[in-house]
Give the backbone structure.
Amino acid sequence: MSVDHAQLDRDHLWHPFTQQQGWVEEEPLMIERAEGAQLIDSEGRRYIDGVSSLWCNVHGHRHPGIDAAVREQLERVAHSTMLGLSHPGAAELAGKLIEIAPPGLSRVFYSEAGATATEIALKMAFQFQQQRGGQHRRRTSFVHMRDAYHGDTIGSVSVGGIDLFHSTYRPLLFPTHAAEPGDAADLERVLACHEEEIAALIVEPLVQGAAGMLVHPPGYLGDARELCDRYGVLLICDEVATGFGRTGTMFACEQEDVAPDLLCLAKGLTGGYLPLAATLAGERIYEGFLGAPEEQRTFFHGHTYTGNPLACAAAIASLEAFEQERTLERLQPKIELLGELLEPVAAMPEVTEVRRRGVMTGIDLGEHDPALRVGHRVTVEARRRGAIVRPLGDVVVLMPPLSIAEEELRRLVAIAAESIEAACETLATRAPDTLAA
Ligand SMILES: Cc1ncc(COP(=O)(O)O)c(C=O)c1O
């Protein structure tokens, strides 16, 4: 007897960032397989993976090198702990990450998600300032950008600024200070106002992804670094979304020659294969935690699956693919092509703005009544036409795998444009309550 997976889903699953009331009324799309930049559903239909399986796939699905590396690791061991033990993959990957990371970063602390990478960076910054002692102990607060997104754990939500996701939890969160995105004068105002209370500034360099691909003006990150130095504040760069080529360089920080004190990586770290995150720290921070056990300067943090060997094997193979396939070099003409393809999209009457850096693209459809679910309607239309996109409100996000073929890229942008047109056309002809499902 065949299993009805769709029914089991409706009966028992609870999906992330999903209003289940609407979900159970729709037929869930079951992805069974994938190949390169395409996802394949249980009926054998193919879709371009227009958001890289939520911004993490890099070299395409079923990449032979990464597949083989995970299989080979399975022949050795699937998991052993990093608490009190080590393993070759974790050490090798740490060495490789330090080689490609901005200068000054020398230590790698693993976890499993973007949220944990940022949570760890916040805790490290806080504890570092506490352990410096003296007046540094007053540095107990953080500065973040308005509309920032750093994950869904309570610490990462505390430095987040997306009201729709975060406001419910406000009573649980620690107090922070928000600065205007991309506005160095405002950042200076906040830092000057709270001088000596701030442990660190956390920022998504160049592009605030979840805010709707909000692009900072050139020079902002460099200014932020300089201001942090001037006010004795640590700089945490959250490259969970921007890392591993999404903005056109391996890390977004490189584009402004900025070296953060702490760097958060996840999503693309394993090529989008397995959950692995890393928080990279400089030697000054690391040394701030050294001491005899009884001094209790230890970083008391660690997860069961920290530095999982299968995930480390995938990450090493992904970094090898970057080198062997000259991924970043081959990406540049695709970024240019994407820019050309988006020009007519930006001119569409339904589109208020197209924001982009590298392959991180937000097509803003402007302000609509949330009940109309315009972004969702674009997703449904795109699916019919053979592409998976997931909007942020009414901003249609495109962020294909770096390995996408030019022809697939053309098709993806064409589908996005057609879907926007179709979704907005239905809006014009239907009343809002008939679209609210
Ligand atoms: C900049 C940034 N930080 C952190 C996260 C959280 O990552 P995860 O979903 O792996 O916890 C995200 C996720 O979109 C992100 O965009």
In short: The pocket of pyridoxal-5'-phosphate is lined by residues 113-115, 118, 149-151, 204, 209-210, 238, 240-241, 266-267 (CB under 6 Å).
